[in-house]
Every structure is written in structure tokens, then in C-alpha cells.
Amino acid sequence: MSRTITLTSAGGFQxxxxxxxxxxxxxxxxxxxxxxxxxxxxxxxxxxxFAAEGFLAIAPALFDRIQPGIELEYNATTSRQGFGYVTALxxxxxxxxxxxxxxxxxxxxxxxxxxxxxxxxxGTLAFLANARLNVDAxxxxxxxxxxxxxxxxxxAPSMYHFGERDQHIGxxxxxxxxxxVPGAPLFTYNAxxxxxxxxxxxxxxxxxxxxxxxxxxxxxxxxx
Length: 224
Known about the structure:
Strand order of the largest sheet: 1-2-4-3-5-6-7-8
Helix content: 25-40%
CATH superfamily: Alpha/Beta hydrolase fold, catalytic domain
Number of domains: 1
CATH topology: Rossmann fold
Structural class: alpha/beta
Order of helices and strands: EEEHEHHEHEEHEH
Number of helices: 6
CATH architecture: 3-Layer(aba) Sandwich
CATH class: Alpha Beta
Distance between the termini: 22 Å
Radius of gyration: 16 Å
């Protein structure tokens, strides 16, 4: 079952969030952190997928502070638009909105642990959520900004996925992450940026399946 709810964040701001519930009662929750394209149909499908795997899943609409209901398609024009939204946001408020989703999950009956999974911009935010918030695990997909925050250390287990053919994120980025978070599982794939997104031309079914299998195993290990 899925629905849209309203969260309460810093300063009393109330972002919306898409929630999907598993068929059986969950003991673990997962916050899904969007790309620069909003909580669009793809991100909602990701939330649904995690719910189907047994997690209570939620995606806060991080662009609501700019304008409610922003959902972008995948092309060069919308990429520029999305980057504009990101730069217009105060990161502290964005992290607070993620924390509002974390706290909502922790308040649900039966939920004992909470993880964060983010994609692209969300991959960087998932890393920051692990460093700054009270979460039990994080997974970052092609988080191209993580290298700017490596002085901040994850407080809980973390996992990383990168595409070897990513024109936006070079090997220097994932090697810096590997060195800064020694022992954390980090995987690279013969794939481009956004390989997990089935709405992009860069979608790679094999890499997406491999990464999702590793992500689910990691989360089940650390959240249950």
C-alpha cells in the first residue's frame, strides 16, 4: 500500500513524502533520497521496490521548500533545472527534511532500525545523513559530491556504488571514498551515471540488479 503523507521538519516546515508499506509488518525502515529530478515516478517505483522487499519505505520531497510537486523527466533541460533547485536549497534544511523522514519511520510501530539509500545528489545526502543524523546504515549510488565531505565520517555502516563509465564521476572520486572510509563495501560497474534508473538512457539492467542485490543484503544485515 502506498500513500502521500506530510512530515514536520525544521522551522515547522511540512514537506510531503511518498510512503510504501510492505505486505507484512516491517521491523526496519528505509529513507529513499531523490536525484535532482524530484520524487518522480522512478523514485516512487524505487520506494515501492523496497516495500516489496519488506521495508517500510519513504521518500521525502526535498524540493517542496522551493515548490510543492516538482517532478522532472530525464533530459538536458531538466538536468539544468534540477541543478538550479539544488543550488537554491539550504543544505541544512535539506538534511533536516531527511531527518524528518527518519524520525517518522522511528515513530512507526515495530520499526527498530532505519537506513538511508540515495541516488546521485541523494547519494551524497545519504552519506551526510549517516555522518550527521541517527541512522543505522546508508547506501550511496553514484554520489558525486561525497568527495567534498570526506572529513565527515559515517557513524554507521555504509555502502557505495559507482559506474566506471560515469562521465560526471571519475575514479578519483571513488578511490577517495575508499580511502576515507576503509572497509566500507564499495563497488564499481561497467555502467554509466544513473545506471539504476530505468527511465534513463544510461540504465543498465545488469548493473542495477547486481547493485540492488548487494544493497538489499547489506541492509538486511545491518537493519534486522
